[in-house]
C-alpha cells in the first residue's frame, strides 16, 4: 500500500511509535526511526525492521528540544531516501505530574518543547518535500488530553490541546496540496510514559498504585482496558491509505469511548 513512500516517526523506539513504524514498514514504506536509547542497539532494531519488511530503515537521532537538530533530522531522512519525505508521525512525548503551584518551570518548558513545539518544527521542515512530491500525510499523536483535561498535568494538557489547534490549522493551510494533517487521540496506553505517570500520580494524590490504574486512568474507559498500540498503528495506516484524502483536520478519539462529549462531536472533522 505504501511502497515507495518515506516515513519519519518521532518517538518510535518503543511503545506506540514502535508499533506505528513497524506497521508503516510492513505496508512497504521506507522508514526513519527516532528516539532515545543506545544508537548501536537502535540501529540493530532498524536492521531487523528492514529485514522483516523488505524495506530500508534508518535511525535518525535528534534532541526535540533543539529546533536545529530537528531540521537536521528531517533533512537527513529526506536526503537518505532521495530528497523525499511523504509521511510524518509526530509521536514523541514526555510527561511531568505536579500541581501548577509547584510545577517546575524547566519541566513546563521541556514538556511544551517536546510535545508541542517539536511538531511545529518537524512539520515545517517536512512540508517542502511533501509539496514537491505532491502528496503528504502528517499525523500527530494528540492523546485524549487534546480533548479533555486532567489535574496535575497542566503542561501536558496545554501541549496536547495545542496539538489539536495546530492540526486543524495546518490541515486548512495545505488542503489544496494533497497533504492531510490529523491527530490521533488515544486513551491510556501502557507505555513507559504511562508507567512512570502511574507512580508520579500515586505520589501526588497520595493513593496506592493500583488505585491510580483502576480509579484514575481506567475510571472513564468503559472497556476497563488500556488501548492497544496496534489499534493506533492500524488507524495511522488508514490515514495514509488510498481512501484517506478526505480525512483532514480531525482529532480522532481512540479510547474506549470515554473522552468526547456530544458537543464536541461536530468539531472533529473539517469538511
Automatic annotation (TrEMBL):
Biological process, per Gene Ontology: monocarboxylic acid metabolic process
PROSITE patterns noted in UniProt: ADH_SHORT (PS00061)
Annotated EC: 1.1.1.100
Top-level class of the enzyme under EC nomenclature: oxidoreductase
Catalytic activity: a (3R)-hydroxyacyl-[ACP] + NADP(+) = a 3-oxoacyl-[ACP] + NADPH + H(+)
GO molecular function: 3-hydroxybutyrate dehydrogenase activity; 3-oxoacyl-[acyl-carrier-protein] reductase (NADPH) activity
SUPFAM superfamilies: NAD(P)-binding Rossmann-fold domains
Cross-referenced Gene3D superfamilies: NAD(P)-binding Rossmann-like Domain
InterPro entries, A to Z: 3-OHbutyrate_DH, NAD(P)-bd_dom_sf, Sc_DH/Rdtase_CS, SDR, SDR_fam
Database matches in PANTHER family: 3-OXOACYL-(ACYL-CARRIER-PROTEIN) REDUCTASE, 3-OXOACYL-[ACYL-CARRIER-PROTEIN] REDUCTASE FABG
Family of this protein: Belongs to the short-chain dehydrogenases/reductases (SDR) family.
Protein name (database record): 3-oxoacyl-[acyl-carrier-protein] reductase
Organism of derivation: Chlamydomonas eustigma
Amino acid at each position: 500500500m505504501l511502497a515507495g513512500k518515506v516515513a519519519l516517526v518521532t518517538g518510535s523506539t518503543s511503545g506506540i511509535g514502535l508499533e506505528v513504524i513497524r506497521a508503516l514498514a510492513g505496508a512497504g514504506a521506507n522508514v526513519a526511526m527516532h528516539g532515545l536509547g543506545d544508537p548501536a542497539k537502535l540501529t540493530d532494531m532498524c536492521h531487523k525492521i528492514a529485514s522483516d519488511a523488505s524495506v530500508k530503515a534508518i535511525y535518525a537521532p535528534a534532541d526535540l528540544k533543539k529546533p536545529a537538530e530537528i531540521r537536521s533530522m528531517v533533512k537527513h531522512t529526506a536526503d537518505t531516501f532521495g530528497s523525499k519525505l511523504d509521511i510524518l508521525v509526530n509521536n514523541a512525548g514526555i510527561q511531568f505530574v505536579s500541581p501548577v503551584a509547584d510545577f517546575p518551570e524547566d519541566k513546563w518548558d521541556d514538556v511544551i518543547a517536546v510535545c508541542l513545539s517539536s511538531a511545529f518544527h518537524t512539520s515545517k521542515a517536512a512540508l517542502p518535500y511533501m509539496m514537491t512530491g505532491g502528496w503528504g500525510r502528517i499525523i500527530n499523536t494528540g492523546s485524549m488530553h487534546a480533548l479533555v483535561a486532567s489535574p496535575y498535568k497542566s503542561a501536558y494538557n496545554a501541549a496536547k490541546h495545542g496539538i489539536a489547534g495546530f492540526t486543524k490549522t495546518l490541515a486548512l493551510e495545505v488542503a489544496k496540496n494533497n497533504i492531510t494533517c490529523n491527530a490521533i487521540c488515544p486513551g491510556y496506553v501502557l507505555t513507559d510514559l504511562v508507567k512512570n505517570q502511574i507512580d508520579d500520580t500515586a505520589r501526588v494524590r497520595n493513593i496506592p498504585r493500583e488505585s491510580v490504574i483502576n480509579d484514575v486512568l481506567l475510571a472513564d474507559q468503559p472497556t476497563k482496558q488500556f488501548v492497544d498500540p496496534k489499534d493506533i498503528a492500524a488507524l495511522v495506516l488508514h490515514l495514509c491509505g488510498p481512501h484517506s484524502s478526505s480525512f483532514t483536520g480531525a482529532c480522532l478519539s481512540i479510547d474506549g469511548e470515554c473522552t468526547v462529549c456530544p458537543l464536541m462531536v461536530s468539531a472533529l472533522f473539517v469538511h
